[in-house]
Specification:
It is a multi-pass membrane protein. GO terms for molecular function: ABC-type transporter activity. The chain is built from eleven helices and two strands, in the order αααββαααααααα. The protein is mostly helical. It has one domain. The longest helix is centred in the first third of the chain and has 31 residues. 39% of the residues are buried.
Amino acid sequence: MNTQYLNSEFAANLVALRTIVHREVRRFLRIWPQTLLPPAITMVLYFVIFGNLIGRQIGDMGGFSYMEYIVPGLIMMSVITNSYGNVVSSFFGSKFQRNVEELLVSPVSPHTILIGFVIGGVLRGLAVGVIVTILSLFFTHLQVHHLGVTVLVVLLTATIFSLGGFVNAVFARNFDDISIVPTFVLTPLTYLGGVFYSITLLPPFWQAVSLGNPILHMVNAFRYGILGVSDIRIGVAIGFMLLATAVLYALCIRLLVSGRGMRQ
């Protein structure tokens, strides 16, 4: 009897998971001119301005042309902003429309709810990352140095920022609140995260300060997967990302179970 109950509960949660993921994917695909097109255009401008125009004056960096060097960072920038933005906007929208309250009183597991939203954010981040990667091939040549590291890092990064977007959505009280973290936290950390430069160019003190930037570790780990060069130790970066994923996941589950910021 217990086995039958567990099987039915698992089946119900699986249906709920598929429904949430399907809704999230349809959501960003339905409005693709707002979700997929703008980041693609922005990245093309980065390729043209920073890669072609400014890159010619800078020359090589890390043994590669400047364009080759910044492409992995720009791909990661697009993955970070879109995975974060998808979850924070979607979950806050559900809060605003009181859809979350229906999920919380349903027999669906909090893990199922969280994983569904996170998968939606990861898929949008990966979709934009693939688009940016394809566009970058019109400007430079890329070859993957280590496929396993590349895939692992991009998945962990998209998961971390999807979970971060979930936390932001839980504590946000209005639509203005969901733009505070991307504007005042993510953007500065991204631009100071080694996307456009190697930290070896910085004085020793600022190199040490830069190591406290989590995005620096993600960008360099992904750059190692693509180009085979990095300013940080790959094992440390991946270990940090695994730990950040576990901590953020536990925090999100606790917020879901408590209903904080979701029950009116």
